[in-house]
Specification:
Protein name: Dirigent protein
Number of strands: 11
Number of helices: 1
Helix content: 10-25%
Pfam family, one: Dirigent
Shape: globular
CATH superfamily of the largest domain: Allene oxide cyclase-like
Largest sheet: 8 strands, antiparallel, barrel
CATH class of the largest domain: Mainly Beta
Strand content: 35-45%
Family: Belongs to the plant dirigent protein family.
CATH architecture of the largest domain: Beta Barrel
Strand order of the largest sheet: 3-5-6-7-8-9-10-11
Transmembrane segments: 12-33, 39-57
InterPro entries: Allene_oxi_cyc_Dirigent, Dirigent
Length: 223
């Protein structure tokens, strides 16, 4: 093949055969550059995928992260004593406690009866005294041999620095006893990580209506 190249005023003029060869070479170069760019992009994508996969792999196959003691804020634990009255109203047109389960043949003590409640917590024993919180939860008669309740409840406070904080209780409440002790199993807000115990004493019980006022002394350890 003969390549005829002519120079005319510093301008190269190519023969048709050379033009075809140059065009082919140019297209081949573009193709190679495209492949290299694609490979580079693919490599970057794989790299990013591996990096993010490593970052989000849960430790020990579970979504658990152990926080080092160095990173935690050291705070001193303190014990608070809370005293208030719990008003459980089952009578009238607007009771704060209602029966939701009443199995047949429930025996002398009403075994299996279950109530859900939204009771006021007050500073004094009278229902008209200042409300400092609410008690919400469920209690069931869980014994066939005595009037003993299984209590699942939360004290949600709405007054002072404890406004918005709560304490959760889960325990057995043997009503005939003068003082019943139930454990604190947790809390929220200022009572986060709470533990302790609550002492319940029946201050007043109306045998006709079933309404009760219970005095609570709560001792809670928290940060």
């Amino acid at each position: 093949m003969v390549f005829n190249i002519f120079t005319n005023k510093n301008q190269l003029i190519y023969s048709p055969s050379i033009r075809i060869s140059l065009l082919y070479s140019f297209n081949l170069l573009n193709f190679l550059l495209y492949k290299m760019a694609s490979f580079h992009s693919y490599t970057l994508s794989i790299s990013y995928f591996l990096i993010f996969s490593i970052l989000f792999i849960p430790s020990h196959g579970a979504f658990v992260e152990e926080i080092s003691d160095i990173l935690t804020i050291k705070r001193s634990e303190k014990t608070s004593h809370l005293h208030f009255y719990f008003h459980d109203i089952v009578s009238g047109k607007n009771p704060s406690s209602i029966k939701v389960i009443s199995p047949g043949g429930d025996g002398i003590y009403g075994f299996g009866k279950t109530f859900i409640f939204d009771d006021a917590l007050t500073v004094g024993p009278n229902a008209s005294s200042k409300v400092i919180g609410i008690a919400q939860g469920i209690y069931s008669i869980a014994s066939q041999s005595e009037l003993a309740l299984l209590m699942v409840l939360t004290f949600e406070f709405i007054e002072g620095k404890y406004d918005g904080s709560s304490i959760s209780i889960l325990g057995r409440n043997s009503v005939p006893r003068d003082v019943r002790e139930m454990p604190i199993v947790g809390g929220t807000g200022l009572f986060r990580f709470a533990r302790g115990y609550a002492l319940a004493h029946t201050f007043k019980f109306d045998i006709n209506s079933g309404d009760a006022t219970v005095e609570y002394n709560v001792f809670v350890q928290h940060y």
